[in-house]
Specification:
Blueprint lengths: L1 H17 L3 E2 L3 E7 L7 E8 L5 E7 L15 E10 L2 E13 L5 E11 L6 E6 L8 E3 L5 E5 L18 E3 L2 E8 L2 E9 L10 E9 L1
Antiparallel strand pairs: 1-5, 2-3, 2-14, 3-4, 4-8, 5-6, 6-7, 6-9, 7-8, 8-13, 9-10, 10-11, 12-13, 12-14
The structure holds 2-acetamido-2-deoxy-beta-D-glucopyranose (3 copies).
Length: about 210
């Protein structure tokens, strides 16, 4: 038993090393309120939320033109081809966290967006760091960012194993004032289900804008 387990772990580690993600070109994230009277219209950017940790903050207004778009506004999409929703690839939203390497030169480490859940809320905060709760996402044909899942617990029946594992796109983005890792920011949020418990949240759509 012990032997089998360690063999499985070695196999898993080898697979993990071999699985090289394809990475899209850089893009920015346009964030726009979906309520008719919403004034939310701007861009997502990575904001400091601890050592080598960044939130996905909201900045109102237009971006400067491409020659001067700073790293904080640039994101990439990593995908392996393993999951799709219809024709749309599913993968991770990644950001290059800058740091200074051992020779004092500027470097960056690629971090996937994960979610920080609050036990007493239905609003979760995206975070770029080394977290485990990576959110699988994709972009639809219009460039809209969606969250991904392949089962729906609202359809569960007691004692019956679910049979529908159809991959689906979910659009549950908001911009809210959120508190995470000791910082309080107006930032992008993922509303897990229903109306957001946080009263500062406004529903938004997030669209990829190629640079
Ligand atoms: C972008 O901004 C730079 C710096 O302000 C300017 O020199 C350049 O002409 C602008 N490019 C476009 C396409 O507007
Ligand atoms: C990843 O990139 C390689 C090389 O360009 C390509 O052959 C492959 O089809 C890509 N995979 C997906 C899922 O797009
Ligand atoms: C995203 O893909 C690129 C290219 O394969 C890779 O260098 C990078 O480490 C990946 N990022 C993450 C967070 O896995």
């Amino acid at each position: 038993m012990k032997f089998q387990l360690s063999t499985a772990l070695v196999g898993f580690a080898a697979t993990a090393v071999l699985a090289q993600d394809n990475q899209s070109a850089s893009f920015t994230l346009h964030v726009k309120g979906t309520n008719y009277n919403s004034e939310i219209d701007g861009y997502g950017f990575s904001c400091h939320a601890g050592a080598a940790i960044s939130g996905l903050c909201y900045a109102e207004g237009q971006l400067p033109n491409a020659s001067v778009i700073s790293n904080s506004y640039r994101y990439n999409f990593n995908y392996s081809g393993f999951n799709q929703v219809g024709d749309d690839q599913v993968g991770t939203l990644v950001w290059g966290q800058p740091y200074t390497d051992e020779n004092g030169n500027p470097a960056s480490v690629s971090q996937a967006m994960s979610l920080v859940y609050q036990p007493t809320s239905n609003v979760a905060a995206p975070l770029f760091g080394f977290g485990q709760n990576v959110l699988l996402v994709g972009f639809d044909a219009e460039g809209g960012l969606f969250g991904y899942n392949y089962y729906d617990d609202s359809k569960f029946v007691a004692g019956q194993q679910p049979t529908d594992y159809t991959p689906k796109a979910y659009y549950q983005w908001a911009v809210c004032w959120q508190y995470f890792t000791g910082y309080y920011y107006q930032s992008v949020a993922w509303v897990q289900t229903g109306a957001p418990r946080n009263p500062t949240c406004e529903a938004v759509e997030i669209t990829k804008v190629d640079i």
